[in-house]
């Protein structure tokens, strides 16, 4: 099967199949006559397994381990169940915070410090809230850092979770924070009479493009 046929059969985007191939989770053979990838029944079954494990929110690294011959799938499922239960507790914490803010009729002028203090007090009681780290891990997974493996020290850095998260933060700063700052700065210049509407439009278009790139990075494949 061709990659387009596989994508249609599995009801996923071609980019998703390519992503899994790029990560080394599936390695289809190349046709001798055309050099195009030829996905076998085994490759399709592997992709189905990957999709199933992604529904369990396993990371790419975890799936690589599961697909290896020496993996203890039962043990990994037990571990994943514990992680999902912890995430459930975090979501319940977020739900409680959201309900409190709605009950207080919180708006743009809300007392941010008050709610952060509330979160801190609830955490002291044992309640948990979502962390930014999982989102950074998704960005790091989708950034295809392997293409930089030829650079000095990169193989070691690619295996370092902290370094990968720092790279994800840099991506966030470049793709989201920088355009937003420039847009706000242009609005302030226009308000003071020294700005340019055309320049603001250009920055807005650029900002939308960069933020859309970042959103694609943070999406789960």
What does this structure look like?
Pfam families: MerR_1 (PF13411). This is DNA-binding transcriptional regulator, MerR family. This protein has 221 residues and is mainly alpha-helical. It has 3 domains: 3-67, Orthogonal Bundle (Multidrug-efflux Transporter Regulator, Chain: A, Domain 2), CATH 1.10.1660.10; 73-130; 161-219. It is built from 10 helices and 2 strands. The protein has helices spanning 3-10, 14-22, 41-55, 60-67, 73-103, 112-124, 133-142, 154-158, 161-191, 197-218, and strands spanning 29-30, 37-38. The protein has a two-stranded antiparallel sheet. β1 and β2 form a beta hairpin. α7 crosses α9 (161-191) and α7 packs across α10. The protein starts with a helix and ends with a helix. The model is unreliable at 145-158 (pLDDT under 50).
Count of individual beta strands: 2
CATH fold title of the largest domain: Multidrug-efflux Transporter Regulator, Chain: A, Domain 2
Overall 3D shape? flat
CATH class of the largest domain equals Mainly Alpha
Q: What does the radius of gyration come to?
A: 22 Å
What's the rounded overall pLDDT mean? 77
Q: Helix/strand/pairing class, anyone?
A: mainly alpha
Residue stretches low in confidence (pLDDT < 50, at least 5 long) are 145-158
Provide a count of the helices.
10
Following the backbone from N to C, one meets helices and strands in this order, namely HHEEHHHHHHHH
Any guess at the CATH architecture of the largest domain?
Answer: Orthogonal Bundle
Number of domains: 3
Oligomerization category of the chains in this entry: single chain
Task: Please outline the major beta sheet.
Answer: 2 strands, antiparallel
Protein name: DNA-binding transcriptional regulator, MerR family
GO molecular function: DNA binding; DNA-binding transcription factor activity
Transmembrane segments: 166-188, 200-218
Domain HTH merR-type: 1-69
């Amino acid at each position: 099967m061709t990659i387009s046929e596989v994508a249609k059969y599995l009801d996923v985007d071609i980019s998703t199949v390519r992503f899994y191939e790029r990560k080394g989770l599936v390695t289809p053979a190349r046709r001798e006559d055309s050099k195009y990838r030829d996905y076998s029944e085994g490759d399709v079954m592997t992709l189905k397994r990957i999709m199933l494990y992604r529904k369990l929110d396993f990371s790419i690294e975890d799936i690589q381990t599961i697909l290896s011959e020496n993996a203890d799938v039962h043990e990994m499922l037990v571990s994943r169940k514990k992680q999902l239960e912890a995430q459930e507790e975090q979501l319940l914490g977020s739900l409680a915070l959201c309900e409190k803010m709605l009950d207080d009729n919180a708006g743009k002028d809300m007392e941010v410090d008050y709610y952060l203090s509330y979160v801190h007090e609830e955490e002291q009681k044992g309640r948990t809230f979502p962390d930014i780290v999982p989102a950074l891990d998704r960005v790091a997974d989708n950034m295809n850092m392997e293409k930089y493996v030829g650079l000095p020290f990169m193989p070691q850095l690619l295996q370092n979770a902290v370094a990968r998260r720092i790279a994800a933060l840099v991506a966030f700063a470049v793709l989201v924070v920088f355009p937003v700052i420039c847009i706000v700065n242009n609005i302030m210049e226009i308000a003071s009479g020294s700005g340019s509407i055309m320049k603001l439009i250009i920055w807005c278009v650029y900002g939308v493009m960069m933020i859309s790139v970042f959103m694609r990075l943070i999406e789960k494949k």
